[in-house]
Amino acid sequence: MFAEDLIAKIKNARSIVVFTGAGVSAESGIPTFRDAQTGLWENFDATLLASPNGFCSDKALVWGWYEWRRMKVLHAQPNPAHRAIAELSNRVDHFALITQNVDDLHERSGVNDVIHLHGSLHQPRCFACARAYIFPGTMPDEPIEGRRLEPPRCQHCNGYIRPGVVWFGESLSEAAWERAQLAVRNCDLLFSIGTSAVVWPAAQLPIEAARSGATVIQVNPDKTALDQVADYNLHGQAGTILPLLLEAITQ
User: Do 5 and 83 lie in a common domain?
Assistant: First the structure.
């Protein structure tokens, strides 16, 4: 099923980077960013909700949307793609996982150190003082159609707690971005999995890896702008392709 030279490159790689996007989480039933526009939020522009201005304009609407999304994530489970990536991480000397996803499915599949370029639904912070906020241990119980929900207040400054994601108009975490760039510049091989390759600056990471001499393998059901850059394009569902690929490199 897979070319012999592809299998050989994976087997011989000593430093592998896996770069994932929404397609990986979608296979666990998590709505993509724009698909999460149902019920209460279907008449709102997602790009406006996911912004500092949107939060300041209607905190209850935005916080309710993100709590609904966090509930969806917590009810979801890692899929075969997540598990294959976690197993791959144990097979190489140096491994880095960079994700555009804001869920914790990679961590729950067994990857210990994940670089979250766009933040995390599970790491909220104060909008005013940026101090971290810890969610209660209970599972969110949000109605299917969603609801408006006032955000909690910061115990230190009484500011409003905001989702821990990178909103439109905000910069990526400098620390996360520097770690990601360092990883791709020093890897032998990079997998780009389930990402549309259109969200910048994240989309430049596979290109940087290619420029640095790494082998780039894309796994995606659809063609993307990365097709012209990748050395190998494996078109299909990550949850189908990655377990088969892992099996092939263990033979």
Answer: yes
Which residues does the annotation mark as catalytic? 118
pLDDT of residue 198: 85
Q: Could you give the residue ranges of the DSSP H alpha helices within the chain?
A: 4-12, 22-26, 46-49, 52-57, 59-75, 80-89, 105-109, 174-185, 204-211, 238-250
Residues 31-89 have pLDDT tens digits of: 876 665 666 767 788 888 899 999 999 999 999 999 999 999 999 999 999 999 999 99
End-to-end Cα spacing for the chain = 13
DSSP label at 110? T
pLDDT in tens, 125-160: 999 999 999 999 888 899 988 899 999 999 999 999
The verdict on 158 and 248 lying in the same domain is no
The total number of structural domains that make up the chain:
2
Residues 152 and 186 in one domain: no
3-state DSSP: the chain helix, strand, coil percent, rounded to 5?
40, 15, 45
Question: How many Å separate Cα 144 from the centre of its chain?
Answer: 23
Q: What is the CATH number of the domain that holds 208?
A: 3.40.50.1220
Q: Which residue has the tokens 């400054």?
A: 157
Residues 111, 83, single domain; the answer is yes
Residue 151 in tokens: 């955000």
Token pair 């994240």 in the structure block, residue: 202
